[in-house]
């Protein structure tokens, strides 16, 4: 168990020693691990670090804005913000198979990241937010597995032709230690204690073909759900966001009939998913208060034109997975 100020001082020292005057690039996803790695490496080497943030058009509402505010504005980190939404949507057009969608998103991500990092000609290091459980997990998968780029960081398969050495300053830390480190480095508590978000993003939460129109509707519905979870406490004064391990909205590309005022509507359906779990291998659906569910449903239907029905997913894992695809 580390004393954080001491840990930071030691880690900073060791990063400086390792990279010297070299330049480092890091794929910033907005997730906890890459964010904490960025903050730590920036503390150590400042402007020698450049982060690349790839927006594939399948991120949560205002995610890009949030990342730029937190890192570029507040911390003064160099961040290249790549808007690749059109490229991703183009490649996803007409594709409905979940695994095919994942593959395309992963492949395009690598493509974009490679193009951007090739522009940083002096970079010698690729930094990653690999944490101890990732090291253990990949140890069983071949002798160099721990040194390959972890797939759920979305840079899976980043070709070795990039010719960069790996810098992984969180390799010895467990998730809870990474979070403490993040807070000690000045990252907001709410950011560091966020639910996990999958690399393929809304791509696996829009069933079937991914379209920008669907992603835009889903983003707004999801933001309402998360906002209500953050604003609603149980009788122990804990928010429902903190009481759940992961919560999100899912877009169902089916239309159902509704009434609005004195008119008939025929619009899409959103499913809400909220689970409680220790390890994400098994999970229970969260028993959210009915009032909370009712409020979320009303708000989504009133505020997001194009959605006229909201349902709640009451499936455990197994047999259902947490994501719908
Ligand atoms: P499932 O749906 O398999 O999800 O029960 C378990 C956990 O893994 C996350 N997940 C992913 N994360 N890339 C990721 O980075 C993926 O392709 C992916 N699929 C699922 C999911 O959000 C949950 O936390």
From TrEMBL:
<comment type="function">
    <text>Catalyzes the synthesis of GMP from XMP.</text>
</comment>
<comment type="subunit">
    <text>Homodimer.</text>
</comment>
<keyword id="KW-0658">Purine biosynthesis</keyword>
<keyword id="KW-0315">Glutamine amidotransferase</keyword>
<feature type="binding site">
    <location>
        <begin position="29"/>
        <end position="35"/>
    </location>
    <ligand>
        <name>ATP</name>
    </ligand>
</feature>
<keyword id="KW-0067">ATP-binding</keyword>
<dbReference type="GO" id="GO:0003922">
    <property type="term" value="F:GMP synthase (glutamine-hydrolyzing) activity"/>
</dbReference>
<keyword id="KW-0332">GMP biosynthesis</keyword>
<feature type="domain" description="GMPS ATP-PPase">
    <location>
        <begin position="2"/>
        <end position="194"/>
    </location>
</feature>
<protein>
    <recommendedName>
        <fullName>GMP synthase [glutamine-hydrolyzing]</fullName>
        <ecNumber>6.3.5.2</ecNumber>
    </recommendedName>
</protein>
<comment type="pathway">
    <text>Purine metabolism; GMP biosynthesis; GMP from XMP (L-Gln route): step 1/1.</text>
</comment>
<keyword id="KW-0436">Ligase</keyword>
<keyword id="KW-0547">Nucleotide-binding</keyword>
